[in-house]
Amino acid sequence: MSENSFEDFVRQHRQEFEAPGPGPRVWANLEEQLNPPRKNRVIQMIGRHWLKAAAILVLLVNSVMIYQFLQMKKSQHLINVSPEMQEAKTYYTSQIEQRLETIKSYPNSVLGLDSVGRKELELRNETYQMLETELIQNPGNERIKAAMVRYYQMKLDLLDKILEELREKQPVSQKQSNYEREI
Amino acid sequence: MQASANNLNNTSITDHLVSRCKKGDTLAFRELYNAYSAAMYNICLRMTGNPADAEDTLQEAFMQVFKNIERLENAGSVTAWIKRIVVNHCLSHLRRKKVYFEEVDNIDVEEETVVDESDFAWTVAAIKEAIHVLPHGYRTVLNLYIFEEYSHKEIASMLDISESTVKTQYMRAKDKVRQIIKQRKLIR
């Protein structure tokens, strides 16, 4: 018999060396690992994708905050804080603009103001805007409301006085004839 | 069509099965397991030496197969790929049990002793019993070479020892098998 007979024997009888396969518990355990109980799936998914979950949460919180900020800004308009003051504003603004238009219709020579001076007469609302901001921050404050109305009344009084002086200098009829002559 | 160990030689069936496994199809995992579990269990049984450890090792190895099958580029090499994962798990199991595969001092390959085997009437049972009582190191080298059909070079790489050490250990293992059989009079 050759010196390799051990190897030859094994190769010739290879199948006889085989034992039956594994018991059923191996697949049962594998199957359990492949299909973990459903109730843990969400937790496992969050665990696996925690970074994505955190990013989505941050985006959601941001969206809610931006929405609330916009809502707050929207409610901070005068019409929402004090509708009656918005009404007064509309009335006085139209009155002031009407007078300004009349003043502008006078020639510079009669008006006696250069372009800078004329601009000064424009509806400058800085004081009023400051009061409006104050009222938005303190809605219902009657003193601020009174100050706003007084501001408009003072402005109207001032413009009325200017118009009165202008009429004295140049009555309306003459002004119109001058205007026609210019045409 | 269900896959079996026999028809897995058919490339298209193997390709289809591997492709289904890559998609996470549990039924495909089951078919793959059915096709290979018996052969792989035998490797585990030979390497670990007992059925309980063999089953545990097989389970670990198949879990790794299922997890990593996405990375398998060539479906045609699935058998060799699974076998290598199983063998690696068996070797890890042995290392955990403090089995070391050390270099032999004499790195010159020993001359194979000419043994008159004419008195030997080998039997499967006698060889199995003799291998079972071999020291872990010898048994591992002998199993990897004679049963799993890896070359001396491949075994050397797996065990991180030299090829000459593998050859020496294999010859010593074979001699040991003969001695055990003679001493125990396993062959009459």
TrEMBL record, chain A:
* Source organism: Chitinophaga pinensis
Which stretches are transmembrane?
50-70
The name of this protein is: Anti-sigma factor
Q: Note the superkingdom of the native organism.
A: Bacteria
Keyword terms of this UniProt record: Membrane, Transmembrane, Transmembrane helix
UniProtKB/TrEMBL annotation, chain B:
Q: Which keywords accompany this UniProt record? A: DNA-binding, Sigma factor, Transcription, Transcription regulation
Looking up Pfam families in the UniProt record yields:
Sigma70_r2, Sigma70_r4_2
Q: What is this protein called?
A: RNA polymerase sigma factor
Check the record and name the PANTHER family matching this protein.
RNA POLYMERASE ECF-TYPE SIGMA FACTO (PTHR43133), RNA POLYMERASE SIGMA FACTOR HI_1459-RELATED (PTHR43133:SF8)
Q: Does the keyword DNA-binding apply?
A: yes
Query: What residue stretches are annotated with the RNA polymerase sigma-70 region domain?
Result: 32-98
Listed GO MF terms? DNA binding; sigma factor activity
InterPro entries noted in UniProt: RNA_pol_sigma-70-like, RNA_pol_sigma-70_dom, RNA_pol_sigma70_r2, RNA_pol_sigma70_r4_t2, RNA_pol_sigma_r2, RNA_pol_sigma_r3/r4-like, WH-like_DNA-bd_sf
Single biological process term from Gene Ontology: DNA-templated transcription initiation
Domain RNA polymerase sigma factor 70 region 4 type, by residue range, is 126-176
Do the record's keywords include Methyltransferase?
no
Q: What family is this protein classified in?
A: Belongs to the sigma-70 factor family. ECF subfamily.
